[in-house]
Amino acid sequence: MNRRQFLSLGALALARPAVASPAQLRVAPARQPLVGTAHPATEVWAYNGTVPGPVLRYRQGERLRIEVENTLDAETTVHWHGVRLPNAMDGVPHVTQAPIAARGGRFTYEFELPDAGTFWYHPHLGSPEQVGRGLSGALIVEEREPPAVDRDLVWLLSDWRLDREARIAPDFMSAMDASHAGRIGNTVTVNGAVLESFSVRPGERLRLRLVNASNARIYGLRFEGHEPWLIALDGQPLEPRRLAGERIVLGPAQRADLIVDCAAPPGSRHRVIDDFYPRRAYRLLDLVYEGSARRRDFAPLQRLPANPVRQPDLGRAERLRIVFGGGMMGAMPSQREHRGVFWTINGKAMPEQHHDPAPLVSLKRGTSCVMELVNETAWHHPIHLHGHVFRVLAKNGEPASEWGDTTLIDPRSRAEIAFVADNPGDWMLHCHVLEHQASGMMALVRVA
Ligand code: C2O
Ligand code: CU
C-alpha cells in the first residue's frame, strides 16, 4: 500500500466511526457520575452499562439485529423511534409484542433501516420511570454518501430530577407532573454528563445530531457566536437553513441535525444557551476553541438526499380531525371516576396498561391522510406517530414544509400533518411528554 492509499483509507476510517454496533443490549441498573466528581455517582438504569446507551450506527439499507436482555425487576420493551419498521418490531407492549419479562426476559429485534437519519431508542412500557432513570440511546443511520465533515457527533439531551446527593427523585407520575407540563427536572445532561465545556478545533466542520431524550423538557438552543445550518429534522432532510440568531426548538423525542462551522478565533469560548422557558434560561455548555487556527473555507452545503418516503396525495387524502384535550385548566376527566387519567384524544383516554385496545382510526393501506391535530389544552404536546414519517403542512398558525415523526404543538394551537398510510399494523399516536402519554394521551391508528 502506498502512502496515498493509506491516507485515503485513514480518511474513510475517520468518516465512518470504527465502533461496530453491539449485537446485544443488556438492560440493567448501573452507577454513573452524572454531575461530576463533587457528587456521588447516580444509580441509573442503563443499556450496556452506560447512560445514554451505546450509539448504534448503521448504513442506510442495512439490517439491525439486536437481542435485548432485561435484568430489571420490571418488564420492558424497546421502541425504535422514527424508524419505519415492520409492526412486530415496534416495541409497543400488548400491541406489537408481549413485554420482555423482568429478571431475564429476552427479545430479538430485527429489521431493515430504510431511511438515513438521526433516530433513537427507548422503552415503551412504564416509560416515565424507565426513560427517566436513563434508558435511551441514539440510533444513527448514515447516508450512503454522507456529507463531508470533520466530526459526526451526537448530543443526546436528558433531563433529570436529582436530590442533593445526586439521587434520582422517585416521584414518577406524580399527579402534579402528569396533569401539568410533565416531569421537568433540575439537571440537564449531554450524553449522560453535565458538561462545562465542549472543545472544538478552529476551522473544523461538525455535524451535530441533537436528540431530545427528556421525559418532558423542551429545549430552545442558541449557539452564541455561530450560525449553524439546520439540515434535517427527525432524521428527514430539509433545504439547509442558516440559524442566524434563531434558536432551535426541540420537543421531547425530536431530533435536529446541524452543521456547525467552527470559524471563531482560537482560544475563544461561546455559550450554548437554552432559553425555551423564558424565566428559566441557563447555559448548557461553552464551545471552547482549542488548538491553532487551520485556515479553511467552508464549502456550500448540499441538501441531504431524500429518504424513500412516499408523497401524500393532498387532493385525494382522507381528512381526520384529532383533538387533544384535558390537563390542568382544561377539560380534564373526572378524577372521581378516572383517577390518574388527565388527558384525552377525541374525548377518550387510553390507559397505560392497554390490553387489546380499539383503534381510534382505521385507514386503508395506501391511503393518503391529512390529520388536523388540535391542541385544546393549556400545555405543549409533542405528538408522535409510529411506523410512518409525515409531512408537516402547518403548525402553530404558520405554514410549514418539513418532514418528521413528532411535531410540537403550542398550547391552544394546531398542526396539520399528511402521510401515506403504507405500513400495515396498529400504530401508536401519542404525546411524547411521557407523563401525558401514560395518563391517557395516546391512541391507535390501524392501517390495514
Ligand atoms: Cu418515542 Cu411511542 O415513542
Ligand atoms: Cu402532552
Describe this structure in words.
This protein has 448 residues and is mainly beta. It has 3 domains: 3-142, Sandwich (Immunoglobulin-like); 175-289, Cupredoxins -  blue copper proteins (Immunoglobulin-like); 314-447, Immunoglobulin-like, CATH 2.60.40.420. It contains 4 helices and 30 strands. The strands form 6 sheets. Strands 10-9-12-17-14-15 form a 6-stranded mixed sheet, with no helix packed on it. Strands 21-20-23-28-25-26 form a 6-stranded mixed sheet, with no helix packed on it. Strand 25 and strand 26 (398-404) form a beta hairpin. The chain is globular, with a radius of gyration of 21 Å. The structure holds CU-O-CU linkage (C2O) and copper (II) ion. Copper (II) ion binds at residues 381, 431, 433, 436, 441.
